Amino acid sequence: MVKLSLHFLAFCIIAIFTNLFNSPISIHALNVGVETNAGLSLEKECSRTCESKFCAVPPFLRYGKYCGIMYSGCPGEQPCDALDACCMKHDLCIQHKDNNYLNLECNENFLSCVAKFTKSGSPTFKENTCSITTVVRVITDVIDAAVAAGKIFKKP
Questions:
Q1: Which of 68, 125, 143, 155 is 20 to 30 A from 106 in CA distance terms?
Q2: Which member of 7, 28, 90, 96 is catalytic?
Q3: Is 90 noted as a catalytic residue in this protein?
Q4: Parallel, antiparallel, or unpaired: how do β-strands 45-47 and 71-73 relate?
């Protein structure tokens, strides 16, 4: 039941953000003051520092410089570790696919990269305070939901 709920939550988040990017409504219309509390923001950010915040909260997860919804490294920034590199590759793929967050190719390649990272036992970046198991679970749940949505909406 919990896994279904996480998938449903992830699906809703992906659907909302996908609709925002494909809609004439500005993302700034969502600015409800969230960013005034604990550094949260619904605006796209770019990062130059390795972060590990909100590890178990899909819409606010910040891991490395590239992992998180509406969160990415600044152009030219090196990833913090191998998992962050997976997120960077996913971000670049999505950009090349016209910001189609439901793109099956990008999302399936991302899941494969995350699985390889998990099996490799590669270390996380030095300042990481998140459980890597939690971060991988959150990322996998969100992307699994995006893959399911991509199949439903027939996104290539």
A1: 125
A2: 90
A3: yes
A4: parallel
Bridge partners of 71, per DSSP, are 45
* Lowest mean pLDDT across 8-12, 49-53, 119-123, 133-137: 8-12
In the annotated binding site for Ca(2+), the residues are 66, 68, 91
Cβ burial of 140 (10 Å; 0-12, 13-18, 19+) is: middle
Pairing state between β 62-64 and 51-53 = antiparallel
Note whether 33 and 19 are within 8 A (CB).
no
Beta bridge partners of 52: 63
Binding residues: 66, 68, 91
The 10s digit of each residue's pLDDT in 12-45 is 555 545 444 443 333 333 333 333 445 555 556 6
Residue 67 and residue 135 in contact, taking contact as beta carbons nearer than 8 Å: yes
Distance (Å, whole) CA 100 – CA 119: 28
Domains (range + CATH), the chain: 51-153 (1.20.90.10)
